[in-house]
Amino acid sequence: MGVLAVVSEGNPHCGLMAYVADETATRLYFATLRNTAKYRAVLKHPTISFLIDTRDRKPAERSRILSLTLSGLCRPVADAFRCKTILNELQTAHGHLTDMLIQPDVAVLEFEIHSLQLQKGPLEQVRVQLKESLRPLQKES
Predict the structure, then answer these.
(1) Is 2-129 CATH 1.10.10.1100?
(2) pLDDT at 119
(3) 8 Å CB contact between 124 and 86
């Protein structure tokens, strides 16, 4: 699980999301319903951030918590076969989502990771840029 951060109607919006990764760990996949604020936000502003951390592992000291912030572009997966495959992976990894994953208006989102920042406690961080730009491609007129 992680926290998805989007821009919704000009304001920041965060939500917990379950995910699965591709074999290269450069793309994550989420499922959501098409009538949600987060789905509409991704369509309008595809540049997002996603935070994964170790808080639930109850480290001996809070200073040992690790957090990984991923930034990049998120878009719906259009191919029906790919969607079904990803939904099956999500169901296997996150059985608690079964009721949502079988809804007819479920959408699969693909998150292409462009950069990451690993925070190790309050003072140590490592940043890695995987792609040049976080800006979505401009549509041609």
Answers:
(1) no
(2) 92
(3) no
